[in-house]
Amino acid sequence: MTTIFAMIFVLGVLIFVHELGHFLAARSIGVRVERFSLGYPPRFLSFTPTTEGLLFRLYFYKWNDARKLEWKPVIEKVVSTPRNKASDTEYCLALVPLGGYVKVAGYVDESLDVELTGAPDELNSKSRLQQIWFMSAGVLMNILLAIVFFTGITLHTGLAEVTDEPVVMDVTSGFPAKEAGIVSGDRILTVEGQPINKWTDLTTIVHASPDQEITVTWEHNQQKITAVLKTRTGPIPDGYGMKEVGLIGVTGGYEIRGAGLGESFVNGIGQTGYWFGMIVRSLTMIATGEASMKEIGGPILIAQLAGESARAGMIALLSFTAIISINLAFINILPIPGLDGGHILLVTLEAITRRQFSLKVRMVIQQAGMAMLLLLIIVVIYNDLSRIFTN
Length: 391
Fold this sequence. Notes:
The chain is built from 9 helices and 14 strands. It is of the alpha+beta class.
């Protein structure tokens, strides 16, 4: 249940924030918003502000006049008093919880249901810059969310300041150090008989000894303890790539100090930039063959990691949400048809060529992009299932 609720929290927050960006941007440039949806069709329930009041609809299967089952409103009721102003925007919760969308007038989106009339409140009637503002707003909101989360986490937990003291700050479960009984606060004294005066002395020896047995002596509660640990092999960042090194599952060489709002905000921006860089590194490794497409994860892996983060505490869950928000922003800004970046590319090409693509061409491009995205979804779900059955 923890995994399910964590997945709902992560996806719910990210989808809502992303689509809220598009919604606010549309309102800011006077574009008519027809629908704000969390999840993809079919719709389950919706609320629409009208002059008669707030119109509530509940959707399910219902017999139509031709005696065929049709997904349509089974309950349709005004649940509030009349109002002077009405947006006629339908706010709905749909049944496929893998995304969401904001449907605006004059825009070819996921529904492929659009009619261009040239009305001033249609997106297609706005300037190129206004269109790009609308299309990029979701990505900007996801980046802002990551910065806000990382800023708040830094305010709460403080900043790590490098001391290079060989004192353990964190121990990773399932790694040799944890199994040997090393805990936070212990001081590493020697590794393979060599004295450890700085944390970098420790990492130099351990990283150079992947999958090897090493003798470690540490101080715990003023007592010396010695044990033989067999290191594991794992990747760490190395310039613009990754390298395999020996690991025992400890971090240290720093201390935590408090941070003010300004410093926390700067760190939030830095953390967001760091994770953007990690995404670029990962894709570069896949492109160069250093990593495999099999390592790409999808919704099942996200759910598993969300559950693990939730069990580790709220700070871990918020950090994970921020990282996934950055991934969502990065993916959406890619110039692939069907994604925000694809729409931006199309508008940019129209500006460069000084000609507008026809509705038919836009529909074909959108369909091609959706086919590509569907193929990617199949690949990542296959990877997720493979991990489960070959665990």
